[in-house]
Design brief:
This protein has one domain (about 5-100). Helices cover about 50% and strands about 15% of the residues. The chain has helices spanning about 40-60, 70-90, 95-100, and strands at about 5-10, 20-25, 30-35. Strand 2 (about 20-25) and strand 3 (about 30-35) form a beta hairpin.
Length: about 100
């Protein structure tokens, strides 16, 4: 099962910026609005990054680690999380967000 990320950003209307992360075949998704943030500041980028991490964990099933014993299931979920988070950061294309992601 391949997971896909779709990002939508309307640069004409900065108030409607929304990121959508979705698992394609199953239709699971997490929507994140960042209209309330100035993502070019360090603080705004860190808040958005925390939201992206949460959404990536939700759509990839990271929260179920406590009940899953299979290492392959855990590895797949972690790979999904990392790929989804990386794609989210790249699609939004903010220098401050990239710095937050880089550590």
């Amino acid at each position: 099962m391949r997971r896909h990320l779709r990002c939508h950003s309307n640069s004409a209307d900065q108030r409607s910026r929304i990121l959508v992360a979705a698992i394609s075949p199953d239709g699971y998704s997490a929507k994140i609005s960042y209209a309330d943030l100035n993502i070019e500041t360090e603080t705004g980028a860190k808040v958005l990054y925390a939201r992206l991490k949460w959404a990536s964990a939700q759509v990839c099933g990271i929260e179920s680690f406590t009940t899953v014993r299979s290492l392959s299931v855990r590895r797949n979920a972690l790979n999904c999380f990392q790929e989804t988070l990386e794609a989210s950061v790249e699609k939004i294309d903010s220098d401050a967000l990239t710095r937050a992601h880089s550590g």
